[in-house]
Amino acid sequence: MKVDILTQSGAGRRVRPSELQIAAQRMLRALKLPRAELSILLCTDTEIHALNKNFRHKNKPTDVLAFANREGEDGHLAGDHLGDVVISVETAARQAKEHGVLLKTEAITLLAHGLLHLCGWDHRTDEEDSLMRAETDRLVLHAIRGDRKRP
Tens digits of per-residue pLDDT, 35-74? Predict the structure, then answer.
C-alpha cells in the first residue's frame, strides 16, 4: 500500500504527517485494501475553502473533503488509487478542542471519514450516518491501537 502526504502552509507542523501515514496504512489493512494507494493533503481553512467552493459549490471552509478516483464514468481506470483526502488542520484543531480530544485523534477521525467516502460510504440518511459513524470509530480504534489484540 502507498500513502502520500502533502502539507501546505505549515499544516504539517501541527499534525505529524508520519503519524497520519501510519494511521492510514492501518486503516487500509482494516478495510482489507492492502494494495490501495491514497493521497492526503493537510491544509488551512483558506485552502480547503477554495476547494470546497470550486468542487462542491459551497462557499465556506469544511473539515475534510474526499475526491474519489473510482467514481464516475472512468472510475475503472483508477486502479489501486482510491483518491485524495484533504484535511483542514485549522478546523481539525478547533473541533479537537470542542470534542476534548487531541488534534492527532481528530485528524485521524477526519482521515477515517474521508477514506470511507473514497470507498463509497455516505451519510445521506440516518441509517447510513449511523453505519458510517460506527465504521469510522472502528477505523480510528484500529489506527490508534494498530494490530494489537483487544484486551
Answer: 999 999 999 999 999 999 999 999 999 999 999 987 767 6
Residue in 6, 22, 10, 5 with CA at minimum distance from that of residue 93: 10
Report the chain's C-alpha Rg in angstroms: 15
- Reading across the β-sheet that carries 37-43, which strands appear in turn? 2-7, 37-43, 81-88, 64-68
Q: Name the fold adopted by 2-145.
A: Collagenase (Catalytic Domain) (3.40.390)
Which is nearest to 45 in space by CA: 60, 65, 66, 67? Answer: 60
Residue 100 has pLDDT above 60, yes or no: yes
* pTM of structure: 0.91
Cβ–Cβ < 8 Å for 49, 60:
yes
Measured CA to CA, the distance from residue 117 to residue 123 in angstroms comes to 9
Q: Per the structure block, which three cell numbers stand in for 102? A: 487531541
